[in-house]
Amino acid sequence: MEKGKKELRKKEIIKIAMDHISQNASSVFNLTLISVDRDDNRYPCWSVIFEMRNKQGNIVDGPLILGINEFGEIIYVG
């Protein structure tokens, strides 16, 4: 871990993800938070997963996944 930076907790990761979603709101999809997990085996980051539904309430192809590193930086959106 870099000097001067503290590792974030799950609650802080959720806030970062929700802030990102609200700043990048979709007029096509409704997003629902379904999972927040940390996997240090593959890459030391948090995976935040949102279910995506269209305005009719149908699930679309796949979830929206945010990768957030231990310093709160979004490093992946997919």
Structure commentary:
By secondary structure, the chain is of the alpha+beta class. The protein has one domain. Helix content is 18%, strand content 40%. It has one helix at 10-23; strands at 29-39, 45-54, 64-69, 74-77. It has a four-stranded antiparallel sheet, with helices on one face. A hairpin with a 4-residue loop joins β3 and β4 (74-77). The longest helix is centred in the first third of the chain and has 14 residues, at 10-23. The chain is elongated, with a radius of gyration of 14 Å. The model has no long low-confidence stretch (mean pLDDT 88).
Main sheet: strands, sense, barrel? 4 strands, antiparallel
Total of DSSP H or I helical runs spanning 4+ residues: 1
Q: Note the beta-strand portion.
A: 35-45%
H/E element string? HEEEE
How many β-strand stretches? 4
How would the blueprint of this fold be written?
Layout: H1 10-23, E1 29-39, E2 45-54, E3 64-69, E4 74-77
Antiparallel strand pairs: 1-2, 2-3, 3-4
Provide a brief overview of the structure.
This protein is α+β, with helices and mostly antiparallel strands. It contains one helix and four strands, in the order H-E-E-E-E.
